[in-house]
Amino acid sequence: MKLIVENLGLNRASEEIVKDISFELSAGEALIITGENGSGKSTTLRGIAGLLPLNSGAIKLLDENGKQFEGQPREYCHYLGHQNGMKTALTVRENLDFWQKFCGEPDLTIEEALEEVDLSHTIDLPFSYLSAGMKRRVTIARLLVSDRPIWILDEPTAGLDAQSVKMFTALCQAFCESGGILIAATHLPLGIETEKTLEIKASN
Amino acid sequence: MLALLKREILLSIRAGGGALTGVLFFLAVVSVFPFAVGPDTKLLSHLAPAILWIGALLASLLGLDRLFAQEREDGSLDLLVMQSHPLALTIFVKALAHWVMTGLPLVIATPLFGIMLNLSPLGIGATMITLLAGTPAISFIGAVGAAVSVKLPRGGMLISVLVLPLVIPILIFGVAAITGALEEPAPFTAPFLFVCAITLFTSVLGPLAASIMLRHSAD
Q1: For the segment B15-38, what is each residue's pLDDT rounded down to a tens digit?
Q2: Under 8 Å CB-to-CB from B11, ≥6 apart: which residues?
């Protein structure tokens, strides 16, 4: 599997913020996008996740034989944005259960996924009861409950303590070893062995 | 998609009782009319179908502004639009859930309010059937309004202004059908079929239009 991004150009409010981003990632590779605040890291990630219309360029997802995957690349991605995408009125189990069913391709069970992020005891608590860091960890568990070959992570470690960051890095490492492609915007390197970096400079 | 329906219904039960709000608003609208009209029961029963329909229409608009704005605020909207399911289908299910939690309780509460307005049993039956057939269309049209105003911080008023002109045909045919059931020689079937047709039509066109809006309002 190969993800190819060619000459990506993206607009925010009719101003081109991201220009000429190109990279290629094979199965098992990770890309860390760095750059100053406002340089267009999030915009790039949202473009790859299919959440922004492309101004120019193309995103392709090819299999081993060089054939394009069916449908849009975004359908093969997990996106972890600034917000958690969880409902505060529902319990942790209900939230994860919904995303697992809605995203399809179930992988780990909800219990196993929460075990991975060390939050098994919160399974029946309303999401609103959790602290910011715990909410983030539940959101990370969402990546584990359904199987997607690409993870797109925007500041994934925001709000996590040192121990949780370590746990998260291990999860990312395991994901890449199992043949996943990971793209993350972060200020700290995740320490994945197959890690590449891409620095975005503010275009103005 | 069943998971989405379940989640939507759970949310509206948990978060402040969405179903109850609609019915209470309906009660408020309907119960002030007898005071305004005065002690003329004949006039009241004559006006009852129109009052019930207006009340149901306004109550159905409640909560429409939250339909996508809330999803956008907590980041769920991004995840909803990324999936391989057709976005129009996702919106259809959300609109359906909105109807189940606001429109359907109104239909169930109609007999009670019909009695308050001195409506005959036949009139109550006709009102329930036309509301059952017509209120889903308000949710489907409302989904378009909600998609248009998803980025606005206070889109509720705008949605009402956008949606009300579009739902007026349903109001006209709905009330006409009830009048047809109660008074000869006005027909019941023809306007009732129009109500059904509008609901079917909007159930396809509404989600489609809303999905195009949501894709283009990405930021």
Answers
A1: 665 667 888 888 998 889 889 988
A2: A87, A89, A90, B18
Between the two ends of chain B, the Cα-to-Cα distance in Å is 25
Fold of the A2-200 domain: Rossmann fold (3.40.50)
Tokens 């081109």 correspond to A16
pLDDT surpassing 60 at residue B52: yes
Q: Please check whether residue A147 is in contact with residue A106, taking contact to mean a CB–CB distance below 8 angstroms.
A: yes
Q: Model confidence over A60-77: pLDDT tens digits?
A: 899 888 888 888 888 999
Residues with Cβ within 8 Å of A15's Cβ and at least 6 positions away in sequence, in order, are none
Q: Mark yes or no for CB contact B79/A99 under 8 Å.
A: yes
Q: Where are the domains of chain A?
A: 2-200
Q: Give the distance from residue A112's alpha carbon to the nearest chain B alpha carbon, in angstroms.
A: 20
A7 closest CA partner among A47, A39, A35, A46: A47
Q: How many residues does chain A have?
A: 204
Instruction: Please state, as a whole number, how many other Cβ atoms lie within 10 Å of the Cβ of residue A191.
Output: 14
Distance from CA of A86 to the nearest CA of B (A): 7
